[in-house]
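Long-time lurker. I teach an intro course on protein structure, and each term I like to show students one example going from raw sequence to a predicted 3D structure in token notation. This year I'd like something fresh instead of my usual example. Would anyone be willing to generate the tokens for the chain below so I can use it in lecture? Attribution to the forum is fine with me.
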Amino acid sequence: MTELRYVYAVTRPFDGVLPEAVRGVAGAPPRLLAHDGLVAVMSDVPAADFAEAPLRDRLEDLDWLAATARGHDAVVGSLTTLTTPLPLRLVTVCQDDSGVKRLLDSGREQFGRALERLDGRVEWGVKVYAEDTAETPDTPAEASHGDRPTTGRDYLRQRLRQRDTADSSFARADAVSRRIHAELCRRAEADCLHRPQDPRLPGVTRGNVLNAAYLVPREHCEAFVADVQRLTPPGPGVRVELTGPWAPYSFAVTTAAPAAGRSEAP
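-- Reply from a regular --
Happy to contribute to a lecture. Here you go:
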């Protein structure tokens, strides 16, 4: 079976080895290819799935794409325990080892600058949500399932109260997110504001007001987490979600131009 090279990330040479249990895209174990001061972390993947023609069809398969993303993230995540990786975009594929070396050569200057900037730093994600307080235990009695409005006027009053509550929650969450973002930017070396999550997508919580990433030196991570906890308001209406530490995805792609997309077509 013809195999191609799926490249997850670029790093500087590092001590240690990847955990044997780690499996990447298509269940393949990752391996390292060192070349002139840089290291590509990659797996051998079947051309039947990753050559240019079949890949176009595969990218329309959301289940396949999600599994590929999980394998990609598993490898990059394992690297963060050993070094600072520069993650490449999903489905960066080369024809063979020589193609991987050409990828490293073509992006050497950009990769070097990015790795220097990101060295010793990780990404934290912070999301702020405006929650529907009508669904909390403090819900007014008339909004409960057992006490439905009996007239059109009662119904309209209830809907207006619910709308006002939702507007109030959103305004409070917006104020909280602005304060959190301003203070976290003082702690972080860089920030990236992503679009709020689309509530129409499966598994996405409604009311996402802030969807941000922060680049933080490892030695400042404990203080960063403490800041998020301190800035999180008590009580219902606003929820703050902290995730990480991650490899610096949000800052790698914008820093290293050759990290984008497919490097070469087999």
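Some talking points for your students: DSSP finds eight helices and nine strands in the chain. The beta strands are 3-11, 31-35, 38-46, 86-87, 93-94, 121-130, 190-193, 208-217, 238-246.
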